[in-house]
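Figure caption, in words: inputs first, then the predicted bound structure.
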Amino acid sequence: VNLRGSTIVADLTWTGARFERDVAIRVDENGRISHGSEAKAQESQPVVRLKGALCPGFVNAHSHAFQRGLRATRQLFNTGAGNFWTWRETMYRLADSLDVDSFYEESKRAFSEMLRAGMTTVGEFHYLHHETASWEFDDAVIVAAKDAGIRLSLIQTYYATGAIGKPLEGAQNRFGPLSRDEFQKSFSRIADKLDPNTQTLGLACHSIRAVSLDDVSYFRNMAAANCWPFHIHVEEVRGEIEDCLAVYGKRPMRVLLDSIRIDESVTAIHCTHCDGDDLREFASRGGRVCLCPITEGNLSDGFCDVPLLRNAGGQICFGTDCNIRLCAAEELRWLEFAQRLRREQRGVIVGEGGSSAAGLMQIGTINGANALNLPAGAIEAGRFADFFLLDLDHEDLRGVPDDALADAFLFGCGNGVIKQTFVGGRQMTRVG
Ligand SMILES: [Zn+2]
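Bound structure (zinc ion present):
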């Protein structure tokens, strides 16, 4: 199914805070929405009737696609409890075992599964660059996204130290940029390989433990000069905070606040253990936060202070990070559930009219698009025609009225209710 050049009318359409009936949308020949909800069907254009509820595609703002390979690993704790650092050893074994073909296959599997979950864009925080010295995994991740059909924001990632001031060790050598200069050169090389219709660039420094302050500041400026989003992992686990305090005398978020310009183009991933004042300042300066609830649960990270962040005006998006499970609805419900469990209170994240679904859909769609600086994440004129369609005949949604559909989907369903996904107006997944 190709929606380009058509006016489409679905049974229901998500217009930002609710589903509405009989909304007409026009998709242009380039795969963008040319008219939103005000569009009227014209005789010169065919009207495509879509059976189901049309939603803007989810934007997954943070992924390491290859880590999906860990799904094939047992969660075995026969010699004592694990934590983030023991998980990281397992991940390093995976990273060290991949060649360019298996890296491509695993990445493509992850991207295809994201599409089946209604995610039409991925922000791929890409730091596994090579087996040897040839950056061959950069090319592989670009081709994998293209072959799967997902929109890619390739967040090219700098990873230069094993811990603060320490050399890379073992599998980390595959992350190494070799030098600042080599890393910069990688951008011009990959820029030529990107599909201009579906692929864009971003820049990340992996974390304060993996990049010197001098380099963080240098690359943050490089991202700004190119209008690229700048992403960085911040305070996911306590160990990295202790190391940072020992070397810099302050916590990672404070180090960033004191050393780089923070604005809307900066996204901090996790912020699990950030000090309240630091987090408030980061949000008030425009910084965005990406939370990855399933990964944070899987890795036993802890809880971000979401209410504080929201009160400070911070915009939250979501990521699937380690990709052990790819289900946007589940990420969003766990974003809210974790806060409910922590606070013994329901309705922590709410949108227009106090609606959980409206609040969570915004995090799942337009906030992620903002974090990747892309015109996506909403059914509005000028944005990409990236959608997924909910199957209203699915038994999991039986008996649900229009006004509770989004809640029923986000809190009660898996990917089985998503019957079609469109990127740039073209169908990327099969029905059923
Ligand atoms: Zn991550």
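The chain has a mean pLDDT of 95.
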